[in-house]
């Protein structure tokens, strides 16, 4: 049976790679990453100001916008991941605008693959969206060949990766990520 | 975003057009029609073609699954179209010892149907209307909420495909 893991920002694991993003430009339509309506995003580069809270930079940022580092994207390309969309994002600091850090806004195909009877979750009474709050169960046949995916119609910001990607990310020395098996997941 | 014209991309009827054999035995029609791309992969796959006195290779084969020629794929890449899942498909003519590269195309499905769309009693579409604001940047896509598995293209794609040397397409305006 295939194993899967959640992956999301956790700047406190390597307390050194926390960042704070500035305003997200209007050209980045939130519907693309909040509602999985990818058609509202083009692949033109965009610039976002950021502030370093430590000495290092994270490979993954999923707090208010889904970003991955250049080297993480290269790892996904090497793994022949094809169910993603990337928009180049250059992060710059106020005091040094000429130096940019190369990131990508990543959209990942979403799947309806959760056994909700076996998953800890809450339902938002206003939007009807679910939020996974603890251990959960993935219906693995619904995942097919995907190595990375999102879970459809949930409020959580994590992606799910397979064992192969987890090993590739870990051998890369991924920074700023919280990787958990679904049975040990805890929501924030 | 300004209003755009959209078209259903269909294949022209061409005598002696190449026909792959048994393609839906290995690529399930359901996965293509319902966009279940998690069950597809990007590995090349080869199919033999039906024997005909003179096989013609159009740039678009609509049935049983939508295939575009390599030339059209290059054209889509040049246009920066990223809304399509591709799988390489080799059509092999054993008699002539020839292989021709095509690409299975599965454009993303989006919620872009206009309220003006009309349906028949059997839920098939009588008149499809697209809400161009909800199409965003997409130039090639499929429509959520209809039974038909239409590939929709915008006018910029149609004009270039029509002006270029491609053949085997016909476009039905919506």
Task: Annotate the secondary structure layout.
The complex is a heterodimer of chains A (188) and B (174).
Chain A: E1 4-9, E2 19-21, H1 30-34, E3 46-52, E4 60-61, E5 67-69, H2 70-78, E6 84-93, E7 96-108, E8 110-111, E9 121-123, E10 130-132, E11 148-151, E12 159-162, H3 163-172, E13 177-180
Parallel strand pairs in A: 3-6, 8-11
Antiparallel strand pairs in A: 1-12, 1-13, 2-3, 4-5, 5-7, 6-7, 9-10, 11-12
Chain B: E1 6-11, H1 23-26, H2 29-33, E2 45-48, E3 60-61, E4 67-69, H3 70-78, E5 84-93, E6 98-107, E7 109-110, E8 118-119, E9 125-127, E10 140-143, E11 152-154, H4 155-163, E12 169-173
Parallel strand pairs in B: 2-5, 7-10
Antiparallel strand pairs in B: 1-11, 1-12, 3-4, 4-6, 5-6, 8-9, 10-11
The helix-and-strand class of chain A reads mainly beta
Helix tally of chain B equals: 4
Structural class of chain B comes to: alpha+beta
How many distinct domains of chain B?
1
Observed structural traits:
heterodimer; A: 188 residues; mainly beta; 5-stranded mixed β-sheet; 3 helices; 13 strands; 13% helix; 34% strand; B: 174 residues; alpha+beta; 4 helices; globular
In short:
The complex is a heterodimer of chains A (about 190) and B (about 170). Chain A has about 190 residues and is mostly beta strands. Helices cover about 15% and strands about 35% of the residues of chain A.
Plain-language structure description:
The complex is a heterodimer of chains A (188) and B (174). Chain A is 13% helix and 34% strand. Chain A has 188 residues and is mainly β. Chain A has one domain. In chain A, the strands form three sheets. A six-stranded mixed beta sheet of chain A has the order 2-3-6-7-5-4. Chain A has a five-stranded mixed beta sheet with strand order 8-11-12-1-13. In chain A, strands 9-10 form a two-stranded antiparallel sheet. In chain A, a hairpin with a 5-residue loop joins strand 4 (60-61) and strand 5 (67-69). Chain A starts with a strand and ends in an 8-residue tail after the last strand. The model of chain A has no long low-confidence stretch (mean pLDDT 92). Chain B is an alpha+beta fold and 174 residues long. Chain B has one domain. Chain B is built from four helices and twelve strands; from the N terminus they run βααβββαβββββββαβ. The radius of gyration of chain B is 16 Å and the shape is globular. The model of chain B has no long low-confidence stretch (mean pLDDT 93). The chains are: A mainly beta (188), B alpha+beta (174). The A-B interface holds A 29, 37-43, 80, 82-83, 85, 109, 111, 142-146, 149 and B 36-42, 80, 82-83, 85, 108, 110-112, 134-138, 141.
